[in-house]
Write a structure and sequence with these properties.
The complex is a heterodimer of chains A (408) and B (224). With 408 residues, chain A is an alpha+beta fold. Chain A folds into 2 domains: 3-54 and 274-406, no CATH class; 63-233, no CATH class. Helix content of chain A is 57%, strand content 17%. In chain A, helix 12 (326-363) runs antiparallel to helix 13 (371-397). Chain B has one domain (32-45, 74-223): P-loop containing nucleotide triphosphate hydrolases (Rossmann fold). Helix content of chain B is 34%, strand content 29%. In chain B, strands 6-7-8-3-9-10 form a 6-stranded mixed β-sheet, sandwiched between helices. In chain B, strand 1 and strand 2 (16-28) form a beta hairpin. Chain B is globular, with a radius of gyration of 17 Å. Chain B starts with a strand and ends with a strand. Classes of the chains: A alpha+beta (408), B alpha/beta (224). The A-B interface holds A 2, 4-5, 8, 15-16, 19, 314-315, 317-328, 401-402, 405 and B 49, 52, 54-55, 74-75, 78-79, 81-83, 87, 89, 93, 95, 97-98, 106-107, 109-112, 114, 154, 158.
Chain lengths: 408, 224
């Protein structure tokens, strides 16, 4: 089959499609809806995946959390550790920092509990976290105003505090400079040195940060740490780092294995993988459901093509008498089915993209149309045309020219 | 040109074997004008289908322009039809969505001719049948006689050696029918072999040779 006759078949198919626009449109509608739903549902799934992964990344990059106690769920960041008996020590922290610059970038101890804040006649219920100056960098949670406390404040057990944005709004009038003001945490006086950036989560915006040494003396009365936040040197070494930390801490805690150990490590990478795995399954499920409508669209094409072959039996007979070979007839009908499917596919892709844009624009539903899903939808509509057009085209090519010519 | 040697066609109808055609010996020379006549059911359609390469015989040998037709595959048969046979049907069999010119171009497409050559060729053909001012018209915008002229132009497009006309005047009034017959006979004079299939004695009288079929056999043959 030469290029020329393929083009001729395509031209004939164009004419035949254009000759009955309503029928062709309705036939393409099935594929159109199928492709549009594949595109928009996959975009929705991808959007959800991105959003969850994004939220997880917001907690800090390359983050590992070492917790006291036995594993409790898979939360990467706990907002209240006052119900955990702290088992992590300064020795543990130093052991983690000593893992080497290839593995570990920063490590900061932290303990968190609920506290009552007071400034003049205003009150606020917040979480108070005791930590060290590395914490803002590790947690990707930085001061926007003023300066975070430094090591000298930790060494001196200074009563300084960095407050979250929501705390600032609750305690101070808008525009008030809070730096240097004294607030009370559970009755003890602290001087505000910084206001932290707004992160959009109550866990951070409604929290205050104080030196870990001050926290231990004034709030917990315990010299151990509830948790240690660790930033790995690179995302590629996170699992290695986790292994090294577990090994070193097991030795320090004189424990044989992680089973029954009094600490555990949560790895951001594992959480990310889990979340993306779940979101990926979700996306696949949505795509499969949408794929079913694509198949239904294909059946519609097959149905109409079979009707069309029957209606045009005489035309097929005439073409055969004039010298059309079987493959000429096959190609003609197959091209017609594929053109209808692909036209439906292209319009479906446009609708799908417009739909996910509208979902974001008007309903703030995150969605991401990927080039992969567009190409896949296009490819699938092509396959649907070939597959469901194949049988009718084959039937057409198998017609007996004599009977076809006699057909009324 | 055309040589049939003991050609037969048998169908299996349930347990019974029906012979639509049996022991037909026929030689048609290039440039002949021959009429095949017989009542319906006499086997003339079957004979025409075999001669036109739309069907293959179950018995005997059929050679068309040195091709042993019974041995050819479906696709080769299609090529032979395209190059050697021009069909003219009683009901014209034009494709309604295509213009006169596009109908004439159809066999040229299957012959693999380029678009510009097809345009030239279809114009020559339509001019030959006197329809140069109707090239863009669709079949439903043409009269019966004009439609049959388009069909004849289409049959001639690939310059076939044989023109197979099956009741070409059957759907036309006497006057128009006569015009069509004259056109076909002119083409025969120019060298095309003309095979006329009909049940009309008067029409058959015009041919140089007449073959009468009954019950699948040649019962009479005369040369004028």
């Amino acid at each position: 089959m030469g290029r020329r006759s393929l083009w001729e078949s395509a031209r004939m198919s164009f004419r035949s499609i254009a000759g009955s626009p309503v029928r062709s449109g309705l036939t393409a509608l099935g594929v159109m809806i199928g492709v549009a739903s594949v595109i928009s549902l996959v975009a929705l799934g991808r959007g959800a995946q991105q959003e969850v992964a994004g939220n997880l990344q917001q907690l800090g990059s390359n983050l590992l959390m070492v917790y006291s106690g036995e594993p409790r769920g898979t939360a990467l960041v706990r907002t209240n550790t006052s119900n955990i008996r702290p088992t992590l020590t300064q020795t543990d922290l130093e052991a983690i920092r000593d893992a080497g610059p290839d593995l570990v970038n920063l490590a900061a101890p932290a303990s968190t509990s609920n506290a009552q804040l007071q400034f003049e006649n205003r009150n606020a219920a917040v979480t108070v976290t005791g930590t060290t100056p590395e914490y803002p960098e590790i947690r990707n949670f930085r001061p926007v105003y003023g300066a975070f406390f430094d090591q000298s404040h930790v060494d001196a057990r200074s009563s300084v505090v960095a407050i979250g944005m929501q705390v600032y709004r609750e305690l101070f009038d808008a525009g008030t400079d809070p730096i240097g003001r004294t607030i009370r945490i559970n009755g003890a006086s602290f001087v505000v040195t910084a206001v932290m950036e707004e992160k959009g989560t109550a866990a951070q915006d409604n929290s205050v940060l104080i030196p870990i040494s001050t926290y231990q003396r004034r709030i917990s009365g315990d010299s151990a740490y509830a948790m240690i936040a660790v930033q790995a040197a690179d995302s590629s070494v996170m699992r290695d780092l986790q292994a090294v930390i577990e090994e070193n801490l097991l030795r320090l805690h004189r424990m044989p294995s992680m089973d029954g150990a009094d600490f555990y490590v949560v790895n951001q990478l594992d959480l990310l993988a889990t979340v993306e795995g779940v979101a990926g399954t979700f996306t696949l499920m949505l795509a499969s459901i949408a794929g079913i409508s694509l198949i239904v669209g294909g059946i519609g094409i097959m149905n109409i093509m079979l009707v069309s072959v029957t209606e045009r039996t005489r035309e097929i007979g005439v073409r055969m008498a004039l010298g059309a070979r079987r493959r000429d007839i096959t190609v003609q009908f197959l091209t017609e089915a594929v053109l209808i499917a692909v036209a439906g596919g292209i319009i479906g892709i446009a609708i799908g993209i417009a739909g996910s844009w509208a979902a974001f624009r008007f309903a703030r539903i995150a969605s991401e149309v990927t080039i992969t899903s567009v190409l896949m939808a296009f490819g699938f509509s092509l396959l649907v045309g070939l597959f469901f057009g194949g049988y009718p085209a084959w039937r057409a090519s198998r017609l007996n020219p004599i009977e076809a010519l006699r057909y009324e | 040109m055309i040589h049939l040697d003991m050609v037969g066609k048998a169908y299996q109808m349930g347990s019974e074997t029906v012979h639509a055609l049996r022991n037909v010996n026929l030689t048609i020379e290039s440039g002949d004008y021959i009429a095949v006549i017989g009542p319906s059911g006499s086997g003339k359609s079957t004979l025409m289908n075999i001669v036109g390469c739309l069907d293959t015989a179950t018995h005997g040998r059929y050679t068309l322009a040195d091709h042993e037709v019974a041995r050819l595959s479906g696709d080769r048969l299609a090529e032979v039809r395209n190059a050697t046979i021009g069909f003219v049907f009683q009901t014209f069999n034009l494709l309604p969505r295509l213009s006169a010119r596009e109908n004439v171009e159809l066999p040229l497409i299957y012959a693999g001719m380029s678009k510009s050559d097809r345009r030239k060729r279809s114009e020559v053909m339509l001019r030959r049948v006197g329809l140069e001012d109707r090239m863009r018209h669709k079949p439903n915008e043409l009269s019966g006689g004009q439609r049959q002229r388009v069909a004849i132009a289409r049959a001639l497009a690939t310059s076939p050696a044989v023109l197979l006309a099956d009741e070409p005047t059957g759907a036309l009034d006497t006057h128009t029918g006569l015009e069509i017959m004259r056109l076909l006979e002119d083409l025969n004079t120019e060298g095309t072999t003309l095979i006329l299939v009909t049940h009309d004695h008067e029409l058959a009288m015009r041919a140089h040779r007449e073959i009468r079929l009954r019950d699948g056999e040649i019962v009479h043959e005369e040369i004028r």
